[in-house]
Every structure is written in structure tokens, then in C-alpha cells.
Amino acid sequence: MKKDLQKAYKLSHQVLSLTGINFTRQTVIGYTELTLLPTKDSIRYIWVNCKQCCVYKVCFNDVLEVPFQYYDPLLNVCQDDNKTRNIEFLNSCLSTAVTSVNPELGRGELLVTVPSEAQHMIQEGKPLRVSIEFSLEKPQCGLHFVIPQGEGSIAEVRGLCGSGGGGGGGSGSSSKSHHNDQGGTSYSGKDVFYFSVKNAHACSPRYIDMYYKKSQLIMRMLEIRIGHELMMPFTVYVDPYMNELTHFCLPQLLPVMKACSKYLHQAFEFFEEMLSIRYPYTSYKQVYVDEAYSDLQSYATMSVVSQNLLCSSRIIDQVYETREVIVLSVARQFFGCFLTRYSWSDSWLCEGVARYLTGLYLKKYFGFNHYKHWIHSELQSVVEYEEEFGSIVLDPSSCPTEPKIPTLASLNRSSKQGSPSNSNTPAKPSFSETGRNRHFGAGGGRSSTPSGSSSVNTSTPFGSGGGGGGGSGSSSKSHHNDQGGTSYSGKDVFYFSVKNAHACSPRYIDMYYKKSQLIMRMLEIRIGHELMMQVLNKHLSLGLIASEQNICSGWSHLLLSTANFTNQIFTVTGKNITTFCDQCVREGGHAKFKMNFLFNRKRNIVEMTIEQPCINETGIKRYDGPLMVWIQELDGTFKHTLQIEHTVAKKEIVCHSKSRRNKKKKIPLCTGEEVDMDLSHLDADSPVLWLRLDPELSMMRSVRVHQPDNQWQYQLRHERDVTAQIDAINALHAMAKAGNVSVEMRNSLNAVLENENVYYKVRCAAAHCLTTVANSMAATWNGPPAMMQIFRKMFGSYSCPNIIKQHDFDNLQNYFILKTLPVAMAGLRNIHQTCPPEVLAFLFDLFKYSDNTKNQMSDNFYRASLVDALAAAVSPAAVQHDPASITPDTLSDSYRKILSEIVRYLNLDKILPCYKLTVTVSCLRAIRVLQKNGHLPPKSSIFMNYAAYPVFIDVRLSAIDQLIDFLPSCGGINELNFLLNLAETDPMPRVRYEVLRRLTLNKPFKMGEGHKLDTEPLVERLWAMMNNNNSYDSRIRGAAMDLYYALYGRRRPSCIPASSSEPVILHSSLHTPVNPKGPLDRGPIMAPRRINTHASPGYRGGSMGPQVVSLDDPSIVQTLDVGVINRPGHRVGVSPIAGAVRVKEEVLDVSEEDSPSVWPSHVSDSSVSLPDGDAAGPERAHKSSSKKRKKDKKHKRHKRVKHERLPRFDKFLVQDANLSSPESSNPPSPTGFGTSDNSASVASAPGTGLGSGVMPVQFPTILGTIAGLKQEKPDDDHTLSEGEVD
């Protein structure tokens, strides 16, 4: 097999040219030329990854037109089965499909046949130039056209941007990235360039500047950005500190971009000084775009960043996240772009080193406490994932479950059997004709990696040009060799393949990269920081030397592999880390320890028992080796290294201190500091204050230490390590939940909360822990509510402590405490399990006296926290009313005030929008909390309005979260349909992915509980997302697999009929009739209602949702469920379910031949044998002989099913496509308002996506009200409700 995979040619040169770009039709026309160097005497076939492209012609040496074939197995993954709904079967088919076009194995979608006329050039060893003419038409993924809607939208085109490497194949243009068996890249620096359209019409650019990179680099790290400067120019800003750095953004965002980019040069200087090497390129560009595929996408000499990360100098909370992303983009230029991975199995190296270097920057500029807390949180997330799903293996190359690579003959046989037949794929997926108008792929061009990029995005889990569809950016060919290593014998417990990025779960790859960073830090602890920097410098130095060579022999140093990295460490340091790689890289899982100890006073020793009780559970492995234990005694901190050789290890450690009776002496800590401690609560016979296991986080582990609460309190108050303090708070929190509380515990938490020398995140965690302690002591609590005196002491006015003083956020620690304390206090409950009246009055005073007029910083996050505090103060209604009878009169005075404040802040955020609409996000959460506790009717229409495009993405995601939370208890088919429509048809790829990801984290129903939403149409719709609807975006396909597994596991869904002969009743609102001209022929399950993408002429992007709400009308409860759409010419109050039509399900007596199929008609029915299905032969003859008798029985059976089985299917409402008005054909859009003249003070700019003070033109002012609007139902329109029997 290995001999068969050996490449017969090398790629030495590539030219890529985009000759036409049409923003109106969203098409790109291009040309690429590949120069191949034969390594064998004969070449029969050349494989090229060419997803989504319409290929017109393939020529050799510009004169010889050659035949070619196209086959993309990902267009329909499970081609031979139309009834199996088992995720194991899908995973098997998907693994085979992505392997058959994997460029790492020398495969691709486009197969070029080398004719006999060209064999003489191959035998002579002459270079062979392969030219391909192609086009892309309305790409589904990879290339993303951001075009505002409304009048003059073409004149407002912002440009062509990449949507990340999420697809299973190429996007944009043709590139070929081949790494030969020696690991060398075969590119010339001459063919890597950056396109900038200087003068262009809507149809095609006239002039293209090509900025050549003078150094060699991997083609998959190339990004192509195109901006029409005549239509909507990007503002170019040259960094004043380093002229090599250039920033691009929309003109209105220039001030905030200057504020965010002033730290970029600092990151370059930090990495150059730490790595002792210069930046490998001559320039760097940072581009901020709207509707980005992810927050960061890194390419050679350029990074594409979401403009939502931009913030002004007045914003506090966003600065930390923005700077971390910017620093990571610089680190990836060294490791990830300049030095890139050898194969997918080595991708942990590039991303791990980049994140490791980012952590070093954070440790220097954000502080050691921030860095240590970040590492601790990353470790906890990885451990939790492994215990839930399975072990994460960083180098899966030795996994023995690699699917068999199909041969050309098998591909031709499968292509003759058929693939989806529609307008986007040819009826026969394999062609050998020649000619100029041969269209292949899906309708000519759906890209799956960054914009026109012939590379793979390092910032997303799917980039690398390899895997399932291959190259990114264009018809690309990228071959990597797998590295050898210790065989991995563990069983693959996942429901997806870990050997290919295009078949992996997005959540798995996120944790995969987090674990790679932790492994890099563990390696630094083993070999030392200085030696680690020398190893990285060695790799970069060899890469710089290789990039200046004109021959391919030395280019292997531009690639990182696990074996090469291990050899370099041995060369530089003399240390062999093979055992470390075998245990931590080629094997997954983590150790789990449970420790108990007891002090023996007679022998003055600590008797310790360390257990590994869960070694057979998911994600947990047995650990044998050294383990560090720190014991804090009265005379100081003593470190011990224990050797763990069994699952139950009993150790004895001699104490260095003696117990103290009445002697007072300062106690030294591990930092060398000496402190005074109150030892009155310590055991008089024990010198042990507390004990820690693996305090340096030097291994992948989960630790549970059992010690008394007084020792946890000592550790919390006097330990200086933030991870030890967080562990102590978690332990005290668990004790408080179990009712094991004391006054000393309360005093310890208060002391930490008031101590300004403690890290602010520890203080915030202590505040929330104090809430749990106070609730457990509600019956015996004396004095004012917990934390009330602390808040008034820190933030109360000097003359009147009950009134908060004017805001001053110069002290950042006090700012975060100010945000946390109201939320923590709102969680307090009295003996009646309601929020104390004193706390509610305190919260209302905060709303009343909040004054930010003299503060230089923005208070939007603080105001959002106040709304969150009101939501936390809500408790279940004392009297549960019928949702239809809930009115303002049924609300108590306190909850009427809570609702009034929430509505007031919601309206204020529309008139004066804050940064990223954080207040609106919190208000939506608060409204949902009121609904869950019975204070508002559980209606979802307000969340649907806010979740629709083109509302600002943060508001949309918040509304989506509330809709998902709405599903388990009171949700129905309408809400689920709306979410699935977003996942299928939303214009923003990131929203489509987020809907599926959030549904997975908060499942609408539990597996096997028989929920009303657990229906066959849901199964079919999810199956279509995994099977054929997302063939170009592997991130969305992987998210759909995650959701399917969360709902149904590995089994076949119970709602699917066991036999194909049983009647299948499909709900009408989950599907619509077949669209023969649609992009994918999904049969009767195709139903999504496309979201309206036409906004008002005022503005396209970043709207805020429905209109302003008023409390003047008594029907405020119903008002929250109604939106007002202000369109030119009319103003209507609309209910999201207006115009709903009655749907009646019928069971038709259809024959087996006429029954609808969920798969294309050309797929043979005989290719699948379902359980309990009809047999062939004599039984079929028997059926034909008793046809009349069967028909009578069948009629009776269908009649019985109609009256008996039908009630168990849910009846539901179908939204009419015309929601805005009887005359309008467009569904209502939350942003369809007329622009008010009073909004001039709140300027905003199209596509900016930020709030007040950052991008003033983003959000229009809304001055209308919708008080008292209520949708009336026509008397003659009877609509079946859910569960109602017709």
C-alpha cells in the first residue's frame, strides 16, 4: 500500500490568476498552472483537489487538451443506503469518503489522465505544465461575499472575504500543495502572491497588483483578499511603531482599530526577543472584516480578524480577549504559517507552540496569576471533555482504523452506481470528455476554505489542505506523509474519525488544540524554559536557511513533524523524550487521583493514601511515575516526590514541624513570605496546615483531595497560588451545597473578598461561594444580607453609604468586584426561598443612582450585570397561573418593578446602543428567566424576532440560547423549525454552526424519553445535514453529527419505523415538497423556510431587533411577544405565528413503488436491505396472488393507524411565509425600521457590528413604541394547537 501511495511527481511551481470577479452574481473566474517534476518514468494519472469549481479545460504545456474526470463522494456520503440512520454507519462512510479524496494520500476530486502524447516528456524528465481553467459560482463555503442589502447595495460592497477552512475541500481557485515522501515542499516563492484590486468594475477587475513573497512558504498558508476600493474602500493604516505592519478596516472603524492595534508591535518585539530570531517575512497585514468565519484566521504575512473584536479605549472587558487574539495571530506567523505541519497528525505541534508562546506573552503582560488561572481552566475543560467522550490522542497516525483507500476502478464503479442527481452535480459523477464547458462540483463553486485561498486556515480545525476534499482555497493538491511512532492500541471510542480534520467533531478539535498547548507547557517543565527556546530557535533558523534556497532538497525544514521535533530536542538538549511522546502524544487520556491523609501524632508522620479508582472509565488511564506533593507545615512548605506504581499507593511522609500549643510565630509560605495565622481552629496535635497534589499542573490529571474544612479555609486565606485558592473555593462550595457550613467558613470567604491583594477572579469566585454558604445558613443568619456591608464599604458614598458613589473604573480589580457583587447578592434566598426584600431594594437603588457622567470608561458591561442581577433575583411564582391569564395585575409589586427596569433598559439600548449591545443580551436572558418562573407567558416570538438575520450576532446568539432553553419544557415544532432553518439557510456560516453547537450543549430532549419533539422528520432533517447538505463545510457537518449523537447516541432512533412496510407519517412543517431545482435534492424532507435577507434601505447589518417596548399599556405581558415592523409605507404589529394555517395529516394508501423516498430517484432501492423488510422470491409471488385480500387488510390497518397512532404525533403550526402583511412577500425582519431623523446623534456605519462609542453608525435609533399591540385571531381561522386532536 505504501508503495502505491508514493508520488510519481513533485510540484515545483504554481501560478494562480483570478481573471474576473463579479460581485452581483457572486462568481470568480480563474486560471492556475502547475509545474510538475516527474520522479518516475511513467505517469498515468494526476489527482487534484478541486471542490466546488466548474472546470472548463485542462491542458498540458498550453497545447495539449487532456481528458479529466470528477468525483466528489462527500456530495452524498451514504450513497448505498437510504434508511439506515445509525451514526456509526455514517462515520464509516464519511471516513471512506474523505480518505478517497485526501491529498495526504495522493487523492483528489479531479482526476487528470495523462495521454500517451505526453509520455515522452515524462520519460525525458522534463517539467510538465498542467493548466486548469475554472470558475466559482455562488460558493457555499470558503468564499463569502459580504454584500449589504437595500438600495445601492452594489455600491456598498465591502469585498470578498474568506470564511475559514471549514470545508471538505477547495474553494476559490486552483492550488496544488504537495509534500513529497521526504517532507519537502515543492513551491517556488515566485508563485505566492497577494492580490489587491486597485481599480475594478462590478464585472471584473482591471488592474491587479501582485505582491510577491521573497521567501518560500507553504501554499496552504496563502490567503487572497480582494477589496473593491471604488465601491467600499478599506482604510489602510500603517503602524506608527513598525512600518512593516499594516492594518485594514472599514473607514468608520479607524479610531477603534488604532486603539486595538497599538499593542501589535509589542507582540512582534516580544517574540523576536524570546526566540532570538527575526520575523521571517518582510511585512505583515491585519485585516478586520465583517461576518468572519471565526475570530481569527492566520495566513502567511496576513491575519483576518473579526471586526467584532475591535473596541475603543473606553471598553474594559473586551481588551483582554482582543489582545489575546492579536498576540495569537503573531505567534502563528512563526509556527503555523512559516513553519507548518507535515501532516494532520502533526498539527498539534504548530498550534500547540503558537498557543504556548501566546501564554508566555500573557504571563509577562497580564501577570502570572492570569496565566496560571488560564492554564487551570484549560486543563479542567480538557479533563471534562475526555471523561465525557473519550481520550484525545494528539498524534493519531498510528491508529489502526484507517479506512481502505479506494482504487480508481472502485471509484468508477461507485460513480456509475450514482450520486445525488441535481442541478449541482452531474448525473454521472465521472467524465472523460474534453471540452470547455464541462461543469463539475456543486453548481460551480462552493468553497470550503478561506477566500480564494490556496491554503488551509490554521485558526480553524479544518484547515490544512488535507483531508476530505482536500485543499483549501482552490483546486489544491496537498500531500503529507504520516510519521511513524509507537502503535496506539486504545479503542476508538468516538463516533467520528480522529485521523482526518474533515471528519472530526469541531468540539473535539477545539479541545485537541487546548491539550496541545498543555502538552507543550509540560514539555517545557521537563526540559527547561531556556532549552525550550533553543529548540524553537533551531527550527526557525533551519527554516529561514531553507527558505532562501532555490532547490527542493532543503525545504523539508519548513515542515514540523512529531519525529523531527523529537530529534531536534535530543540534538539541542541531549534529552530523549520518546517516552514522553509515547505517553502524552501518541496516547490519550488523563490520570485521576483521589487522596486521603491522616496525621499520626505518635510517629509525627502523615499517612497518605493515593488512589486511582476510575482507570476503566472513559478518558481515564492508569498513571505510573513520579508525583509531586506539597505539604504546608507550621515551619514552612516542604516538597516531596512520590513514586506511584499501583492503583492504590500508601505513603508515609515525615513531618518537619512539631505541633504548637501557645507559641506564636510567623509561618513561612512557599513564596518566602512569612504571615501571621490564627491557629485556634487547627488541630492542636497536627502541624499540617494543608496539602496539595501536583501544584505545578505538570501533568494531565484530575485531583480530588479530602481534607477538613478548616484546612481548606487556611489554604484559601494564606496560599498565594491562584489554582490552590480556586480549588479551595470549589471544595467549600461543595461542602456548602451539602449543608456542611460554619461561621468560620463565612468569615474566611468575607476576608478573601475584602483582601485587595487577592487576584480578582478568586475574589469573584469567593463572592458566589458566599452566596451558597449564606443560603445554607438562611435559618440562622444574623445581621444584614451577605456582602451588603462589603459593597457599601467599597462603593457607597461617604455621606450616605446606601447610595452608590459615581463610577470610577480606574481600579480594575474594584471594577470587576463591582460587577460581581450585585449578581452574587441577587442569588441570596431567605427561609421562604425568595430573594430578601432588602436585596431587591438595594438592586433598585443601584439602577436609580447609577452615574457614569464623570467616568472615562464605558459602563455597558456593568449595566448588563445589573440586569443579570435582576434575573438572578427572580424566584418561582408563589401561585402558578394559566399562561393565558397572566396580566400585570397578577404580578407582585417587586416583579412589576423588575419587569419595568428590564423593559426600560431594553428600550434604552435601542435608542442609545451600547458596545456590542451587551445590555440587550442580558435583557433577553432576564425575560426568559421571568418566563421560566411563571411571571410571563412562555412565548417565544420575541426571541425569534431577535434571532433573525441581520440582527447583530451577539444578540442573535443570545436569542438563540433562549429559544433552545425554551424547547425542553414548553417548546414546540415551530421553535425547533425556526432553529433548524437557521442552521440550514442563515446567511452567516458562524450562526449556522453556533445553532448546532448550542443545541448540542443544551439538548432539547433526553435520549429515549419519548419527547414530543423526538420525531422522524427531525431525524431525517439532521441526517440530511450530515449526509449531503454540508458537503463543503465540514465544521457544520461535524456539529450536526455532535447534535445527532447527543440526541440518539450510537443507536438507531426509536422514532424511526423498524420496517419499511409500515406507513410513515411526516409532519408537514418539517418539510416542503421537493424542489427539483434546489441545490440538493433532499426529497420530502427539504422544508426549510429561508430567512429573509432583505433589510430596510437604512442599513443591512447589526440591527437590534423589534421596536421599543412601553409599559403604559396594561397588556405589557403580551407586548413582549409582539414586534412592530416599520417598513416604508406601512407600520404593522405582527405576531410571529400570524397567518398560521391548519395542517391535517393524512395517511394515504400508496403502493410500495409510489412511496416517496428521501434519496434521489436514481439510487437503486435494491441497494439496501432493511430489517423486517419484504423478502424477494416466493414471498413476492405470494403477495401478488393475494393482492385483494392484502388491500382490504391494508385499508383497515391504515384506518386504525389514523385513529390510534396519529395522536402520538404532535400537531403543530406552520408559519406562513408571509408574516409581515398580506401584501408583502417577505417575512418580518427585526431591522425593518424606518430611519428616524432623531438618530443623527447615534451615528453608525454599515458592517461595523459594534456599539456606542465604538462605531456610532452601526445601530439606528428607534423611537416608536409597540405598547398594547395584540394580534387578533380571525373567528373563522381555527388552528390546531400542539397535541390537539382533529
TrEMBL record:
Annotated Peptidase M1 membrane alanine aminopeptidase domain residues: 265-376
GO BP field: transcription initiation at RNA polymerase II promoter
Basic and acidic residues bias: start-end ranges: 1204-1213, 1270-1286
Ranges of biased composition (kind: Basic residues): 1183-1203
One Pfam entry name: Peptidase_M1
Low complexity bias spans: 447-460
Domain called Transcription initiation factor TFIID subunit 2 TPR repeats: residue spans: 709-1064
Protein name, entry field: Transcription initiation factor TFIID subunit 2
